[in-house]
Amino acid sequence: MRRLGVLIALALGAAAYGQTLPEPRTVKISDRVYVLLGPIQHANRLNQGYMINSTVIVGDKGVILVDSGGSDEVGRHIATAVRRITDKPVTHVVNTHHHGDHYLGNAAFEGATLISSEMCRKMVLETGHEWLAIMERDIGRRLPGTKPLAADVTYPEGARTETFIHDVRFVFWVPRGSHTIGDLLVHLPDDKVLVAGDVLVSRVVPTLQDGFVKNWIQTLNEIQALGVAHFVPGHGDLMTLHDVAALRDALLRFYSGVKQGVRNGQSEGEIRKSLNLSDWDKLERAYVIGRNINRAYLESERDFFNE
Ligand SMILES: [Zn+2]
Predict the structure, then answer these.
(1) More confident residue, 295 or 307
(2) Residue 276 C-alpha to ligand 1 middle, in angstroms?
(3) Ligand 1 centroid distance, CA of 50 (Å)
(4) pTM higher than 0.85 for the full model?
(5) How far away, in angstroms, is 3 Cα from ligand 1 center?
(6) Sign of the C-alpha dihedral, residues 224, 228, 234, 239?
(7) What is the pLDDT of residues 110-136, one digit of tens each?
(8) What pLDDT score does 1 carry?
(9) What is d(CA 35, CA 41) in angstroms, rounded to the nearest whole number?
């Protein structure tokens, strides 16, 4: 009986546990661009893997959604939030990068064209099962309906491709690997909006674990020159130009500190003590700081030997 109960619970998903997913906070940027601000905590039993921002772009004949959430259930939850904004169908889903919290909801948008960078597609194919296992571990149950679906349409590194979808002008920009090896930035020049995935974050520590800190700083410099008014981060509240500059400065300070430590022959532990991390220590996800130091340490060691 108990076993049967478990099977039924698995089949029904979150609802069988009496859990309701947290509702996003909807922010209207313009008549056709809305942001669904999700929870900022790491994936857990309460948020069921819903921990990202999604952007809803309402075109003349359909919706372009940027980032679909961390499971099929989260994807359906986001789809419900989209329907509160418009009854037009979601015809395109853009994935900003291959971290599971941002794209494992793709399966909820059957028939939609999936868009990402070329490298993101490759990473989804190679690491999708690992991300699914991480999500299942973090939320504490299986996700049988969640499939890591890779993109149908991709853009190569370095490309800035202008295209119209449902009469909205898009520039899909693939910078050199910054937060990950396959970031895709979505620029809406006529709306003065940039949807940046985790290349921009607010209220959480930026995660460097799969990143490239020098490229990231360079990308943030280029972002500041776009002439955009509304910056949509992957996690946390909408950002201003000033916030983007502050993030860039924080990453630069961090990297300079790590690099100086490597020059002085310090260990990672010694570097951690010598850095001023007071800004990051009080944010959500402060646990990534150690991994950030490790990643920046390896990158500056490579620089050091190449100098
Ligand atoms: Zn990420």
Answers:
(1) 295
(2) 24
(3) 13
(4) yes
(5) 36
(6) positive
(7) 999 999 999 999 999 999 999 999 999
(8) 42
(9) 18
pLDDT digits (tens, 9 = 90+) for 55-88: 999 999 999 999 999 999 999 999 999 999 999 9
Closest by Cα among 61, 93, 59 to 76: 93
Going from the Cα of 205 to the center of ligand 1, the distance in angstroms, rounded, reads: 11
